[in-house]
Amino acid sequence: MRYLFLITAVLFLIIGCSRDTTRLIDQEEMDEMRNELDISRCESRMDSLRFEIEGMLYHVSLTADGYTSLEELLPDSIPGCPVSKQPYIIDETDSGFTITCPIGHGSVYILK
Question: Which has the minimum average pLDDT: 53-62, 71-80, 82-91?
Fold first, then answer.
């Protein structure tokens, strides 16, 4: 019984002396974290779309038909920004494609 009291007293001292590392996050920090997560989600989706388009271009390069235009390869609807739900903007140049978020979360480039 005496040892039980001693062990309990030591545990209370250890727990009582530990630092409290919790802190409150204000609304500005929460908004900043939410914005960073939104950007990461959007960049991840653009990256996935880039990977899919690269696969389509590779597959077409192996066929005898060859590449004509990206519009022929893409489905009727493409994924969009997960935040705004607006479709990504895809621009074609002579050397590749740019996939851009319509609300400014960034862009990715695909070489032809």
Answer: 71-80
Of 64, 60, 57, nearest in space to 111 by CA: 57
Beta strands in the chain (DSSP E): 89-92, 96-100, 107-111
**What whole-number distance in Å separates Cα of residue 74 and Cα of residue 56?**
9
Report, as an integer, the average pLDDT of 63-81: 77
Q: Tokens 């996050």 appear where? A: 25
DSSP letter for each residue of 65-85: S----HHHHS-SS--B-TTT-
pTM: 0.71
CA angle 72, 58, 74 (to 5 degrees): 25
